[in-house]
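Example record for the data management plan.
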Amino acid sequence: MAERADAFRLRHATLVAVALAGCRSFPPPPDHSDLDAAAARAFVREQAHAVADLAAQVSLSVETPDFHGSLEGALLIAPPDRMRLRTSKMLQDVFDLVVTPERLELYWFPDRVLWRRTPDSGAPAAAVEETDGKSGDARASTFLRALDPGTFRASLMAFELPPVDATARSPWQERVAGERVERTRRALVVADDLESGNRLVRTFDGASLLLRSAEIRDAAGRAQIVATYDEYRPFGTLWLPTETKLVDHRHGVTFTMEFSDVALNEGVVPGAFELALPAGATVREIR
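Corresponding structural encoding:
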């Protein structure tokens, strides 16, 4: 019996050791409780601007009134205005999305259709039909109609938006017309009046100054966008969230993302934000 008990304890200890080996531990984030409101605001701005480019593997969940699904993918962003997201499911490519100041392009692999939208086309309302009369995949069309390029991109940059008086207007990007900062022991709250008339409120943890949530409301106070950030990890000198959730109440869509294999500020290869049209693909304009 003693031998069996010893064997059980050895097996249990081994399993615990294996489990712990698979879990990485991280030190707590630095404490910035001593920073006053102005210094804390400068710090979070500096942290956001320190991200020149970021690449990561992504687990993406999308929920809309018409469908929901989960995808795996690769994300590349180069703030403030470039992003690429390529996804797959069960080893099959699903879509390749590129957002630049000039256009939004989404290649939908199942139909071999390249959907294209430009800033001057306004909010998506209808798609131009293909010349042969065939309708594209409804999921691609629904996804594009629910996607706000500026908001999706800003959510990946901690909603650090440029001021009106210091930057030129850029497509699909809000600018800040006025700002108020409130500092307490529990939180740093940054409230921005946006050029569009909307209001952005970001809440940072009072000690770590890590972004916990961002909310955009319209002039009437109705919630339009709510983003939350969790599971921060250190990458060099920066702490970044590895889980984000973006809820767009205007379109009833929710994006949930989990990041892994993050590469920070390693440079972007030429052509990374150019989507080459595959042979035989059809182009459809969103307007």
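Summary line stored alongside the record: The first helix runs from residue 2 to 21.
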